[in-house]
Amino acid sequence: MMTSRDYNLLDDNILFSLLREGDREAFSEIYKRYWMVLYGQVYRMLEEEEETRDIVQEVFTTIWFKRDRFSSFDNLAGLLYTSARHRMLDLLAHRKIQHKHVESLGSYIQQHSDNIIEDLNAKELMAAFELEIEKLPPKMKEIFRLRVHEHKSYQEIADLLGISDLTVKKQVNNAIKIIKPKLRSYVGWISILTWLTH
């Protein structure tokens, strides 16, 4: 039986095949591998945390419940982003707010989709990101992991650890200052780190 570490070593094609067979560990690895990258890309366009989080969650929920409908030839990164892109465009078409950039944003999403799919070199980026997290001081690492891996808000982390939300925010910002220079060579790192500070 494979361990979580074994799944981490699998390439996307194998993971996708296992997902289509209903393998929950494969789904978990796909989620871990792509959640932050996808979030960063969507947030870069919408600049709204709650809507971004909802879209990303919907994407992963959909690929799990409709896993048997996908072709074995589908590109996983492309499938995830295409699904997110459709949801972003639906959101822009239906939400009832005044936004002077809605039309240009929709155009931007359409025009940049191919480039963004190419940017999703998620496994390499996440491996580098995890390595840098491990190097953080213990308390900072604990707070940062709660923000990154469990997607908790500043207030949720503060309540959990019995500290102020300002302390949490400071620790997260300090962690980003430490990690940021180490990830400059990876495409998409700006988008990934941006959402952590909101």
UniProtKB/TrEMBL annotation:
InterPro entries: RNA_pol_sigma-70-like, RNA_pol_sigma-70_dom, RNA_pol_sigma70_bacteroid, RNA_pol_sigma70_r2, RNA_pol_sigma70_r4_t2, RNA_pol_sigma_r2, RNA_pol_sigma_r3/r4-like, WH-like_DNA-bd_sf. It comes from Sphingobacterium faecale. This is RNA polymerase sigma-70 factor. The lineage of its organism: Bacteria, Pseudomonadati, Bacteroidota, Sphingobacteriia, Sphingobacteriales. SUPFAM superfamilies: Sigma2 domain of RNA polymerase sigma factors, Sigma3 and sigma4 domains of RNA polymerase sigma factors. It comes from the Bacteria. Residues 31-95 form the RNA polymerase sigma-70 region domain. Keywords: Sigma factor, Transcription, Transcription regulation. NCBIfam families: Sig70_bacteroi1, sigma70-ECF. Belongs to the sigma-70 factor family. ECF subfamily. Pfam families: Sigma70_r2, Sigma70_r4_2. Residues 129-177 form the RNA polymerase sigma factor 70 region 4 type domain.
